[in-house]
Design brief:
The complex is a heterodimer of chains A (112) and B (379). The mean pLDDT of chain A is 92. Chain A has no helices and eight strands. Chain A starts with 6 loop residues before the first strand and ends with a strand. In chain A, a hairpin with a 5-residue loop joins strand 1 and strand 2. A nine-stranded mixed sheet of chain B has the order 3-2-4-7-1-8-11-10-9, sandwiched between helices. A two-stranded antiparallel sheet of chain B has the order 5-6. The longest helix of chain B is centred in the N-terminal third of the chain and has 16 residues. Classes of the chains: A mainly beta (112), B alpha/beta (379).
């Protein structure tokens, strides 16, 4: 999330892509990671509606998303009720301002 | 390598459930005293100290000071609820190498009477910002995916909870003992789909302790030794988003290594203790440990197969779902396996149990540790 747009790292030695910021490539151990912009496209890998009290923010749909670039991301689904979110559904990732800083959330991908 | 070189000579739990007014160390001391009494050993015979908890940053030091010990060897590796089976490996190696002669593994928690819930001292950079409760969210995502891929049903998840409760009804020390039906599990308050509160483990106070010695010395203790036949630990990820496949845990690898070390196979197992923080865990671990093919765990547990009277006794104390879950459950599995292999489990005793499998988990399917324990007849 450098400079306000989401980035992830790709190893220029082996091509491994990571969403967890690291110094050494977890695929090959080399220190040749480059930042690249996040491709916002992905698909829902799993989904749950976490039930929270209203004062805690109410129910929230939490998803695991397989990003087009490879990594998997825990995220929040915005704009659809939990029951409408399906595994396999195409989504788009975007940055929003969370309570403790920027967060990646996903919405359904109208173009897919 | 370490097969049969060391044995559990004492094992005990403290009061379990809601135990107001006791710190985690006071509860730990209760279990330690009972385990050492079981082994007929004085506190100061302990020269190897193992254990950790979720409250102390430097648990070995805190425990050593609290018990007035100057241990020759310590290990407080913290890999979550699987830590204590890992400590079992460490204790067996240390005993075999002569680094210590009486090893104590101890753990306690007052999470129910203290905070009233599990408190995690650490945030995860990628996953804590969403303000959802971890680890339950991670397990719910695994359960949802398991249902999607293999057709596992909520009713099958519920039957895991029902089986655990039926065992708990045979255990006077279990926290929840009233009858529980699948309908009650399904109709309970939803926490995170598909898991209701009855698919989730208890929040309890409690402590457990075990004492180990080298096999040649264990034979002189009053209780029948329970031998460490094989153990293994595996790690796979910290964040749930970093788990390669949320329906497959590293238990496959830890179990293969533990059974290989033990020279045993699944068919030899008489009684099973699994880390049932959530109902999905039991289904996944039965698959990953090899009791049934991947995806068939839901069908496997149907018809009371893992309940009292079933062909595979699982979580005979009532498990984390109905007996006790203090935040880190694994040590309670080792105590229950010990009682079963000594034939001391009362109404819930599995007749003639000689070989026990304990499998523990930590984090969000993050760490997996397997132990194969046996009575003297298995050596």
């Amino acid at each position: 999330m450098r400079a306000g747009t989401p980035h992830l790292q790709r190893c220029s030695a082996c091509g491994e892509c990571t969403i967890l910021p690291v110094v050494l490539c977890r695929g090959c151990g080399e220190r040749r990671l480059e930042w690249e912009p996040l491709d916002p496209r992905g698909r829902v890998y799993s989904a749950t509606v976490v039930r929270r009290k209203q004062e805690q923010g109410g129910d929230v749909t939490v998803v695991l998303v397989d990003l087009a670039q490879g990594p998997r991301l825990l995220s929040r689904f915005a704009g659809l009720a939990g029951a409408e979110v399906r595994i396999g559904m195409p989504v788009l990732a975007q940055i929003v301002e969370g309570t403790d800083g920027p967060l990646i959330v996903v919405t359904s991908d109208p173009s897919a | 390598m370490i097969r049969g070189t060391s044995a559990i000579v004492g094992a005990a739990v403290s009061r379990l459930g809601r135990v107001p007014g006791a710190t985690h160390l006071e509860l730990t001391a209760e279990a330690v005293h009972a385990a050492l009494t079981d082994a007929a050993l004085p506190l100061h015979a302990v020269d190897g100290l193992f254990g950790c908890n979720m409250l102390n940053l430097l648990p070995s030091i805190t425990l050593a000071e609290y018990f007035g010990l100057q241990p020759r060897y310590v290990d407080s590796t913290n890999i979550g609820g699987a830590s204590f089976i890992h400590h079992l490996t460490s204790a067996a190696l240390a005993l075999d190498a002569g680094l210590c002669s009486v090893a104590l593994i101890a753990y306690g928690s007052n999470q129910l009477s203290g905070a009233g819930r599990m408190v995690l001292p650490e945030t995860l950079p990628l996953e804590s910002g969403y303000d959802v409760p971890l680890p339950v969210t991670g397990y719910a995502l695994a359960a949802a995916r398991h249902m999607h891929e293999y057709g596992t049903t909520r009713r099958q998840l519920a039957e895991v909870a029902v089986s655990a409760r039926r065992w708990a009804q045979l255990n006077p020390a279990a926290m929840l003992r009233e009858p529980l039906s699948a309908e009650q599990v399904l109709g309970a308050r939803m926490v995170a789909d598909p898991l209701t509160v009855r698919d989730c483990c208890l929040v309890s106070d409690g402590a457990a302790a075990i004492v180990l010695m080298r096999a040649d010395e264990a034979r002189d203790r009053p209780r029948p030794p329970v031998y460490v036949l094989g153990t293994a630990t595996e790690l796979s990820h910290r964040h749930i988003g970093q788990m390669p496949d949320v329906t497959r845990s590293a238990a496959t690898r830890s179990a293969a290594r533990a059974f290989s070390a033990a020279g045993a196979s699944l068919g030899d197992v008489d009684v099973v203790q699994l880390y049932d923080a959530f109902t999905i865990n039991v289904i996944m671990f039965l698959e990953d440990l090899g009791f049934c093919p991947k995806g068939e765990g839901g069908g496997f547990i149907e018809g009371g197969r893992i309940a009292p009277g079933g062909t595979l006794p699982v979580n005979t104390n009532g498990g984390g779902l109905s007996c006790v879950h203090t935040g880190m459950y694994g040590l309670f599995e080792l105590v229950e396996a010990t009682l079963q292999l000594r034939g001391e489990a009362g109404e819930r005793q599995v007749k003639g149990a000689e070989l026990a499998l304990c499998h523990a988990n930590g984090g969000m399917f993050s760490s997996q540790a397997t132990a194969v324990l046996g009575a003297a007849t298995t050596l």
